[in-house]
Design brief:
Layout lengths: L5 H28 L3 H7 L24 H23 L9 H8 L6 H18 L11 H11 L2 H14 L4 E8 L2 E8 L10 E7 L2 H8 L3 H12 L2 H9 L2
Antiparallel strand pairs: 1-2, 1-3
Helix pairs in contact: 3-5, 3-8, 4-5, 6-7, 7-9
Bound molecules: zinc ion.
Zinc ion binds next to helix 3 and helix 8.
Amino acid sequence: MPQSTLPTQNKQLKQVRLAKLGGIFLEYKAASVLADVYAVTRGLNTMAIAQPPLPYDFNALEPYGMKAETFEYHYGKHHKAYVDNLNKLIADTEMADHSLEDIIKASFKDQAKAGIFNNSAQVWNHSFFWNCLKPAGGGTPSGDLAAKIDSAFGSFDKFKEEFSNAATTQFGSGWAWLIDDAGALKVTKTPNAENPVAHGQKALLTLDVWEHAYYIDFRNARPAFIKNFLDQLVNWEFVEQNLAAA
Ligand code: ZN
């Protein structure tokens, strides 16, 4: 065959290969939008635990005190690293098929599984935390939740005070929580990756107080980050849904 036809043939072959790769990529994207990466990736025998999509755009909270850069690092690097680490740690173990919650409970306080606990709990905590935020959030809760907060803490302002205090005084890295503990609403704080799932409690709301959560937007000013969260970001509808499901 004349040599002059070769480049054309190669180009056509490359186009076919790219189209095939594109097909796989598009199928993967569609699956991830449907939060069905779990089934797809398990089918490909790669990852067991998926990172859920962020429930808003990276820049959605910029008018409310959190830059897109925060999400590029916090969601795109920190949260993703916990997911990647966890999948490496559970690959080819009996935990590879377990739910995230079961992995957290089974590894809690097991020194031999400390890495699995830290990474699995941090995957859960961050996936939950993203849903606790929304553009133009904050304000006050309503309905059953508002009544239960008043009854547990005396008033919504007292709740805010207690939650802020827990978030401020968690020494070093950790989390502040509003939980439903067997029907009673409580504010708690946990160190590092520890969370209500490990303690058999129902999480309603959380705030990440690891320095990586606020350094880009607030530098070292954790109290300003906490105030901004309560004033402008809390997704009370998500908290109400959690309470209804408790
Ligand atoms: Zn974090």
